Amino acid sequence: MNNKNLRRSRFSFRIAVVAGTLWLGGPVAGAPDLIAPYQPIDPTMSDTTITLTGHDLTIEGLVQIARHGAKVRFSAEAKQRAAEAYGLLLQGALENVPIYGFNRGAGEQREVVRFSGDPLAPETEEWLEGRQREFFESGPSWGYGPEVSEEEIVRAFMAARANNIIYEPVTPEFLDMLVALLNRRVTPVLQARGTLGEADLLLTANILGTMVGKGEAYYQGERLAAAEALRRAGLQPLDKFGVSRGPLISTNAYSAGWAGLLVADARQMLEWADLLLAMDLNGMNSSITPLSLPVQTNRPHTWLNWDAARVLDMLKGSYLFDEDPDRIIQDPESLRASSIRQGSAWQAWSVLRDSVLMQINTSDHNPAVVVGLKPEDSWELATPWMMRYYVRGGKYSNGKSGYIVSNANWDPYPLANDIEYFLNALQNLGVAVAQRLHRFNNPYFTIVTAEEVLDKDPQGLPSGGYAPQGGGFIAGGLWQDVQNVARPLSPEGFNSDMNAVGDLQAQTRLKAHNLRLAIDYMFDLMGQDLLTATFWMDIRKIQDPDRTFGDAPTAAWQAFREVVPLRYTEKNRPQTPIGRIAYRFLWENPASDFYPDGPAMPGGSGHIPVAEGAIGE
Amino acid sequence: MNNKNVLRSRLSLSIAVVAGAQLLGIPVAAAPYQPIDPTMSDTTITLNGTDMSIQDVVDIARHGAQVRVADEVFASMETNLQLVLAGARQGIPIYGFNRGGGAEREIEIFSGDPLSEENARRLVQLRFEGMHLVGVHGGGEQHSGAGPAVTEEEIVRAQMAVALNRMRYAGSKRAPVDLLVDMLNKRITPVVLSRGTDGHGDLGQDGAIRAALVGVGDVHFRGERMSAREALQRAGSRPLEPTVESIGVYGGWGGHNSYTDGQAALLVHEAKHLLDWSDLVFAMSMLGLNSSIAPITAVPQNGRPFPYPNWQARRLLNIIRGSYLFDLEVDSDNPEDTHGQRILQDPESFRDYSWRNGATWRAYDQLREKVIVQINSVTSNPVIKAGTHPADSWELNTPWIRRYYVEPSATSEGGYILGGSNFDNTPLANSVEQFVVALAQSHVATKERVQRFFDPFFTIITMDDLPEKDRGNAPLGDGFAMSDLTAELISLANPVPAAGYWTESGIQDVQSFGRLKVVKARQAVDTALYLVSNELLSATRWMDIRRVQSPGRSFGAAPTAAWQAWREISPWQQDPQVREQMEARRIMLPYRFIKDTSPARFLGEDAAGPDIVDNTR
């Protein structure tokens, strides 16, 4: 993965988080319902094309499409898969198989017969098409504001949806339009709220509205009437709508695509947590025994051992491995425990990563439309009840058979749990960061005080003073921010319709929102840690100029000192909180720039499952 | 396994729950001591430090199985001890031996040969006095724990069993191990304070066990409270003596975290019991509702290949195999309609089951694996690793780590003695909270399902549709009670806030709070069991209604057996006077039924839990 291409555009994240935090103040009539300036992407990868197959979209691929403007195309097999599902849907209705949300109603109307017999009979087809057109045209009115202010989130939604819609009965024209919107950067205005996080149903309608030129959309970052955006992009409004609404909107792709971006951000956060720990250990003149092989082999938790090996490897070549009569035998617990907590958070991250990969590469639609599955494939399929949902095959399905079966595949578990699992692990890592940076104030641990060393600074007292350490009230307050968003939501069973058909909700959108805030607050907190670590690396270097810190900590320390020098003159002293500079430095300079390799991650780069019926396997 | 052995002594758990409530600050009357019922005292389990299972802990702790320690453990302890002695002779600083512990980590306690007459006398005396001071930490702060005392003998026995299993990794004479074996086998169970550990070591609780070894403090001897000295005497055992051969000069010990980890093992066992019953009762609810089984069939499940939810769905299908849910439902008024009396799609609380509970099974499995690693590895500090050499890993051959290398000598093969933080219980603690969050997410649906039985929109019929003579009066789930219990479950799922409290001069500045997390989790499991017991009432009531509605209906082997077993206690049609007498115990009866009955009795081959390999763990 090319980190330079994957890093975030400058400052965009901060503004978005402010927007996320302040859902206050209503929109001004007639103005965009945005509470932060719209953040278009910087399409640095627009010359790259990613092929969507429905079963091998990676986190990196998702980020490239959503954040860096990579283009997409469907594999021929993927388009064929969707076309065959569409044919089976028509054939199923023709055979009078009861199909949820098609020839039967949806939600509490699941028993209501909407039509019977051939869906392409002229009267039925006209009625279905009319209903579809009405729904597309009403698209912009669904959901609830404010609008999503970051183009990358909307594109992540569209990319995740494009990848897994190939399992659903949709028309080739619809697929082409979805790809065209992504590739020409026609990005619909998307309402941020109005989903229970268990199928982002009606937010998806915002995208449908753009497809038919209704509402507003951004064309290459410029807000226009959707019809004008399509015109400028050289696109005609969609005029073939297919016969079924459900496959177009029943998806968790908004939450799942967003979670995919957050997995990438969380990785950058954890990589920095590891590198900052190595820098802190250098700054503290720590005893690194807790990371060593004998200690680790006696407690064989895979991810803990991996993280310890990683931090140890970063430190290779550091003075911490040399004799030092003044070094203490044992650090404060926060420094000793950090790699344990980081390893534990990495494990939770890997669980979340795999859940996201599963979610964006499989069908989350109800009903499941599976071409080719036969009664003999599993014992229950041959039972009388399941045979009710067996489509024998005929003219609309090219003779192919299959099943169309009601389900709850849109219930986004374990993903919804895994976001909170990671959040909780993050909280338990965050407390170690918050504590460890404060221990540098105590000569019980540092042996010397910074003042004692700086009094002997060979360069003399700088006219503008020294760059500060992190900590104090600011770090304490930032830690409170992390705590505030890391708590799980209460699981609930709201009866969202009259008859309580939908009696559970997963709150996935809100969980993703909290995760996003937590990651960003961790960057704030780690910015304080960066100030402290680099300050104390300087102290240790002044103490003994021969000291070395290991390649990666040295490179990160020196890169930061380019931005924030240790010694200020009166002229170059920053007029802004220096913690903010550190925060930006961490976002804009991935730790992997300084430490690109290291021990292999347990389990490799993530497991992408292959769903039944995925073509090409 | 003999089911009788698995049955808890009647009412003990309700008392345990009261104790749990007490721990959480809910004012209740003090609970009486709950001795175990040693039904497995004719079974002996050999502990070797590497393959202790959850069932081993349960059999020893709860059912009084006898223990013996493998010879290899004694050999390992002696090797470790000789390494520590040789290390001290070679002048290597050893935390908690020739250096102090906790805040006194830099203070030299002695130098030279620990077995020299003067050193040995002083060290033995220090050890002896230290074991009198409950939980004293290396001459620093004292950690005695906080009341109330643990009321369940099984908790302390679980703690002792885990501590004993970990002795393999300690350097110790064999006398303490022999006496600990004696205490377990003769049921000398120390009085341990239930609270007052930060989850990093459980020092106060561990100290209570160590005190009993020297005849200090109170214990329960076969359930009767008395002084440790008297109990040892009555049991024909002798306390450790302040000699080199008995108590020894070095305090290697396996008790760190054993209080928390032992309870975590009980938690895993109880969680399996709960999840098994949940699956069985949910299957009975499906039979009661006349559910559509489509969501758990191969069609939608294959399209979303999450291993645990797929396993969950398959398990449910197996449980209801042979039931009427696979047959067509013909409406006698409208024989053409094979759809008949069964609805196309259940409420979400039914349809979502495989996703939410599958996610809970996965969290259970991850917790189980963590606990197994935890009880079979070392969590004490320092780590003693005989047989490791500088050539084993690059960092071991650096000057700083070489400081801790014990050169081979006449008495020791050499190795490392290293400070670590292996007692940081965060990986386990995170997994405990991950499990409880998942549990709340799945079991919030239990209350919803019971409510859906009141709505003929889902049930199609009501009791009033049955012939009057066939109507029953067996109780159904209590909505008010379930609301209260669901709220309790949700509150228990809120994680313990991550915090960093300063103790021991800041050496300890983060805590994992494992004890509190495990106590909350065990209570959450128990609360969920109450919820499931209420669902059992509604499920069985509706199984009867379905049977009256159509006497030919079958339910599958396991649900039928469980339904009939419950009907022996609570008949479908019951004499009103008898029923009235039962009413007073109504809530407790179903709870006791599922608490005391192993689900394996009904599940047969389906009783095994998931066996899924996740290569990232």
Set out the fold topology:
The complex is a heterodimer of chains A (617) and B (617).
Chain A: H1 3-6, H2 12-21, E1 49-52, H3 59-68, E2 71-74, H4 76-94, H5 122-138, E3 144-147, H6 151-164, H7 172-183, E4 186-188, E5 191-193, H8 203-211, E6 216-219, E7 222-225, H9 226-232, H10 246-249, H11 253-284, H12 293-297, H13 302-314, H14 333-360, E8 368-371, H15 384-387, E9 390-391, E10 402-405, H16 415-438, H17 443-446, H18 450-454, H19 472-486, H20 508-543, H21 551-563, H22 578-588, H23 591-594
Parallel strand pairs in A: 1-2
Antiparallel strand pairs in A: 3-5, 4-6, 6-7, 8-10, 9-10
Chain B: H1 3-6, H2 12-23, E1 44-47, H3 54-61, E2 66-69, H4 71-89, H5 117-132, E3 146-149, H6 153-165, H7 175-186, E4 188-190, E5 193-195, H8 203-213, E6 218-221, E7 224-227, H9 228-234, H10 258-289, H11 298-302, H12 307-320, H13 348-351, H14 353-375, E8 383-386, H15 399-402, E9 405-406, E10 415-418, H16 426-452, H17 456-459, H18 479-493, H19 514-549, H20 557-569, H21 576-583, H22 588-596, H23 600-603
Helix pairs in contact in B: 2-19, 3-6, 3-10, 6-7, 6-10, 10-12, 10-14, 10-19, 10-20, 12-14, 14-16, 16-18, 16-19, 18-19, 19-22
